[in-house]
From TrEMBL:
<dbReference type="InterPro" id="IPR051312">
    <property type="entry name" value="Diverse_Substr_Oxidored"/>
</dbReference>
<dbReference type="InterPro" id="IPR002346">
    <property type="entry name" value="Mopterin_DH_FAD-bd"/>
</dbReference>
<dbReference type="InterPro" id="IPR036318">
    <property type="entry name" value="FAD-bd_PCMH-like_sf"/>
</dbReference>
<dbReference type="Pfam" id="PF00941">
    <property type="entry name" value="FAD_binding_5"/>
</dbReference>
<dbReference type="GO" id="GO:0016491">
    <property type="term" value="F:oxidoreductase activity"/>
</dbReference>
<dbReference type="Pfam" id="PF03450">
    <property type="entry name" value="CO_deh_flav_C"/>
</dbReference>
<dbReference type="InterPro" id="IPR005107">
    <property type="entry name" value="CO_DH_flav_C"/>
</dbReference>
<dbReference type="InterPro" id="IPR016167">
    <property type="entry name" value="FAD-bd_PCMH_sub1"/>
</dbReference>
<keyword id="KW-0274">FAD</keyword>
<dbReference type="GO" id="GO:0071949">
    <property type="term" value="F:FAD binding"/>
</dbReference>
<dbReference type="InterPro" id="IPR016166">
    <property type="entry name" value="FAD-bd_PCMH"/>
</dbReference>
<dbReference type="InterPro" id="IPR036683">
    <property type="entry name" value="CO_DH_flav_C_dom_sf"/>
</dbReference>
<keyword id="KW-0285">Flavoprotein</keyword>
<protein>
    <submittedName>
        <fullName>Carbon monoxide dehydrogenase homolog, medium chain</fullName>
        <ecNumber>1.2.99.2</ecNumber>
    </submittedName>
</protein>
<keyword id="KW-0560">Oxidoreductase</keyword>
<dbReference type="InterPro" id="IPR016169">
    <property type="entry name" value="FAD-bd_PCMH_sub2"/>
</dbReference>
<feature type="domain" description="FAD-binding PCMH-type">
    <location>
        <begin position="1"/>
        <end position="170"/>
    </location>
</feature>
Length: 266
């Protein structure tokens, strides 16, 4: 690991000012991805700016028909929060299935989204639930946030301060996880509100994506049978030592069906 300076930001404005002044500086949330990259000398920031202790940044609250999760909220906090468990149990379950106990105790939602690992769970939750990402300067709809492999709509000095999740009528997340890393080989979030169904898939491609064939099928009939009847095109999906593109394509409707069944049970 290379030498670096460490700063603890008093507020979002101060944190952003440091990155604006030094393009080699990086925000530090839980450090579950960044510190590992630094240990491998794949990243060498000049300054780490700790944003996890900014007052209010880890707050979780209900506002109208939304759950607002602070950018520094840790996965374990989301998983165990009473209002999240009551109003969006799918989100609590997703957070509770991220990594292991250590990762959940340290990792933050803002860090996970900014990193945008193609096999991470939170991107599926944010995109599937139609959430809005709030930064120090603007709001970004989930459909506009994820751009590609480890790429988001964030500017280099932009800080995620919160994520606003609309409360769906029914939702669930199902994933087939890699037993070693616990990342999603494929993960599927299904959410229904009225006649609108959103289906987001992680782990299968270079970035999280909405699966329109499943959305169309489930909008017509919100049943596991309808999900299982969908055939997913494998031509744009990932293939690696863990699974072929065709196997991932097979898993997507299978997991969507499981998510529909779980959503129906509440």
């Amino acid at each position: 690991m290379y030498a670096f300076n460490f700063e603890r930001a008093a507020d979002a404005k101060a944190a952003v000012a440091t990155l604006r002044a030094d393009p080699d500086a990086k925000f530090l949330g839980g450090g579950q991805s960044l510190l590992a990259a630094m240990k491998l000398r794949l990243a060498a920031p000049s300054v780490l700016v700790d944003v996890a202790r900014i007052p209010g940044m880890a707050e979780i609250r209900v506002e109208g028909n939304e759950i607002v999760v602070g950018g520094a909220a840790r996965h374990a906090d989301v998983a165990e929060h009473a209002e999240v468990r009551r109003r969006i149990p799918a989100l609590a379950a997703l957070a509770g299935g991220i990594g292991d106990r250590q990762v959940r105790a340290m990792g933050t939602i803002g860090g996970a989204l900014a990193n945008d690992d193609p096999a991470a769970d939170y991107p599926a939750g944010v995109l599937g639930l139609g959430a809005t990402v709030v930064t120090d300067r603007r709001t970004i709809a989930a459909d506009d946030f994820f751009k590609g492999l480890y790429e988001t709509a964030l500017e280099p000095d932009e800080l995620i301060t919160a994520v606003r999740f609309p409360i769906p009528e029914q939702a669930a997340y199902a994933k087939f996880r890699n037993p070693a890393s616990r990342f999603a080989l494929v993960g599927v979030m299904v959410a229904r509100t009225g006649n609108t169904v959103r289906v987001a898939v992680t782990g299968a491609a270079d970035s999280v994506f909405r699966c329109q064939p499943l959305e169309q099928a489930l909008s017509a009939a919100f049943t596991a049978q309808a999900a299982r009847g969908v055939k997913v095109d494998a031509s744009t999906l990932n293939a690696d030592l863990h699974a072929s593109a065709e196997y991932r394509a097979h898993l997507i409707p299978v997991l969507a069906a499981r998510a529909v069944e779980a959503a129906a049970k509440g």
